Amino acid sequence: MCGIVGYVGGRPCRDLLIAGLEKLEYRGYDSAGLSLLANGRIDSVRAVGNLANLRAAVADELDEGAVAVAQTEATIGLAHTRWATHGRVTEENAHPHSDEDGDVHIVLNGIIENHSELRAELRAEGHKFSSETDAEIVAHLIEGHYDGDLTAAVRAAFAELRGHYAFVAMHAEHPETLVGARNECPLVVGVGDGETFLASAIPAFLRETRSVMGIENDEIVTISPGGVEVTSAAGEPRSRELQQVTWDEEEAERGGYSTFMMKEIHEQPDAVAETITDRLPEVDEVDLSELSISAEQAQRFRRIVIVACGTSYHAGLVGRYAIETWARVPVEMDVASEYRYRDPVVGPGDLVIGITQSGETADTLAAMRLARERGAHVLAITNVMGSQATRDADSVLFTRAGLEIGVAATKTFTSQVAAIYLLGLWLAQSRGCIDRGRIAELIAELKALPRKIGETIESTDAQVRAVARGHYQGRFFLYIGRHIGLPVCLEGALKMKEITYIPSDAYAAGEMKHGPIALLDETTPVVCVATDSPVLEKVLSNVAEVGARGADVIAIATEGSEIVSEAADQTLFVPRTDWILQPILAVIPLQLLAYHTARLLGLNVDQPRNLAKTVTVE
Ligand code: F6R
Fold it and tell me: Is 613 a catalytic residue?
């Protein structure tokens, strides 16, 4: 979720590039940098922290006379905001990165999956690296392929990369050319009068031009002051029309969506892909060496305790099923705000997992600290590098969802669930209780999730909006499900009450007859998670039970599951996957249902009343 801006044209571009980065700040970052080319030489300035630090670093360089940076007339450059994934938050790891001679500079968003093997190959050829990043290898690869044609060198490097990324490259011998390449991460061209921009998002150049051209996957783009050339990865020319953007700047920050929440719902395929991709290096192996927990240690855990609040707690609930099923180790769940008050029995032999997207939730931190004091191994799952949770834990597993601005957690939830799936599989692998064939099956399914999440958003959105239209003036929503469907219901009900203020409850479907069924009449929408699982038949009897009270049953089912659509009033289908992974897809229509209901009520979904994004008080 980093930001890229590149410029080539007739104007001095140092300040233009920093102004472009400012427009990408909303994406979140922890360091930033830029490279400028003038008089055949490229200079970089990088800084940890915010753009004020980068500006100060540029001013220092000017004092010291770094040639290109000092050239206020430099008219070609690259800039980047980094949200750390590979490698710590340091100046050396900030982008741009270059080859040893500093001829090739690149900025990259995303992840290069095969960076370790490429780095080893390049090392063997004599390349020396100056950062811990996967991105740096791209500069070295381009340099290795370069024989005077930058586009050809980028194309050759692109062919060697695996992963999920977009990058832009500059070469000291080409003062009028930037070359970009895209594989899954966004890249867009902005065309002005005698100048061209290449960025990860339109806001970066919207003040300068409204003529844009999107770059597609597996395309290479070469820009110069007077033009844009797009080719396929194989080198065939691609023609593309310029489009005129009509958004204002605020809309542009939201990527053209009317709210951050909707934008973040659409960012889920990306967020999940970034979270899982490079941790699945082989078809049948999960790599979580970043946890620094040995296989022997993993075998010795007697029990796992998960502590978290709100949506993060629901992610933990989903994870419990996966961990217990795959790794055969008991998992207990605790609401973090309650945990320490019951003097919990916890200590050596326990793995305590604190899940907190912000890494700053006071109750989760307190629960983690208590468990650590008592001798448990504490692992934090968080989205924020450098957050308190990362300092209070023995091991850290980062989700890579990028900054979430909407108060209601969406992409951080699905990324947390993806991270716990990885953890469950890794524990199973380390404890030797799953065979490699089954791991391979599950890894293939995990890798397909980003695509399936995207399909779910596309295929259910309009239908969910229609459901919301039918019920937005209702006084109550009930969510029912069993087994892995239950945490999805809890999360759906939380989203509904949080952003629509409509009372909503989630119940284990088998509990209905013990009281809650009294709530139902023909005005009550009952959302039932009925995706494929070993308990689907039981869920269907609960659907019949609520249907008999006249309630309007809206079911979430696995595609092709006609048995559910026959029983429910309306059915929203999600793609088929392994049943234990189904929650990550089933939650999408429930996020959309809360969203559309709130919008029909005219509410501010990004900032609901009484709520803050991070809860730092106990
Ligand atoms: C709901 C929501 C909250 C958070 C909770 C924990 O949409 O965002 O329920 O999940 O406040 O926050 P973190 O994960 O930052 O600890």
Answer: yes
pLDDT value at position 271? 92
Distance 363 CA to ligand 1 centre (A): 11
CA distance to 55, 331, 350, per residue, from 303 (Å): 49, 6, 5
Write the single-letter amino acid at 167: F
φ, ψ of residue 250 in degrees (nearest 5): -65, -45
pLDDT of 24 reads 87
Element (H, E) at 7: strand 3-8
Instruction: Specify the residue with its C-alpha closest to ligand 1, atom 9.
Output: 310
State whether residue 189 is helix, strand or coil: strand
Atom of ligand 1 nearest to the CA of 410: 7
Task: Read off the amino acid at residue 538.
Answer: K
Separation between Cα atoms, residue 595 and residue 457, nearest integer Å: 12
Active site residue 2: yes
Q: How far apart are CA 24 and CA 70, in angstroms?
A: 24
Q: Per-residue DSSP letters for 584-614?
A: HHHHHHHHHHHHHHHHHTT--SSS-TT--SS
> Ligand 1 centre from 407 Cα, in Å?
8
- pTM of the entire predicted model: 0.82
The pLDDT-based confidence of 182 (bands split at 50, 70, 90) is very high
Geometric angle at alpha carbon 378, from 377 and 382, rounded to 5°: 155
Q: How far is the CA of 120 from the centre of ligand 1 (A)?
A: 40
Which ligand 1 atom minimizes the distance to the CA of 382?
14
Say yes or no: CB of residue 337 within 6 Å of ligand 1. Answer: no
Residue the block writes with tokens 């695509």 = 451
Which of 260, 337, 361, 609 most suits a substitution to test ligand 1, by most atoms within 8 Å of the C-beta? 361
SS3 128: coil
CB of 188 closer than 6 angstroms to any ligand 1 atom:
no
Is residue 104 within 8 Å of residue 119, measured between CB atoms? Answer: no
Element (H, E) at 238: strand 237-238
| H-run or E-run covering 159 | helix 150-160
By the 8 A CB rule, do 527 and 594 touch? no
* 588 pLDDT more than 90: yes
Cβ-contact 206, 189 below 8 angstroms: no
DSSP-derived secondary structure for 466-487: HHHHHHTT-S-EEEEE-TTHHH
Three-state DSSP at 447 gives helix
Q: Measuring CA to CA, how many Å separate 370 from each of 90, 393, 413? A: 31, 11, 25
Q: Can you tell me which atom of ligand 1 is nearest the CA of 615? A: 11
3-state secondary structure of 110: strand
C-alpha angle 51/214/158, rounded to 5°? 80
In this predicted structure, the answer to whether residue 496 has a pLDDT above a threshold of 90 is yes
Looking at the chain, the whole-number percentage of residues with pLDDT higher than 70 is: 98
Confidence band, pLDDT 50/70/90 cuts, at residue 70 = low
Is the pLDDT confidence value at 67 over 70?
no
pLDDT band at 516 (very low <50, low <70, confident <90, very high): confident
Q: Which atom of ligand 1 is nearest to the CA of 357?
A: 14
Tokens for 141, please give them: 């690869």
From CA 19, how far away is CA 21, in angstroms rounded? 5
Pick the catalytic residue: 2, 185, 489, 528? 2
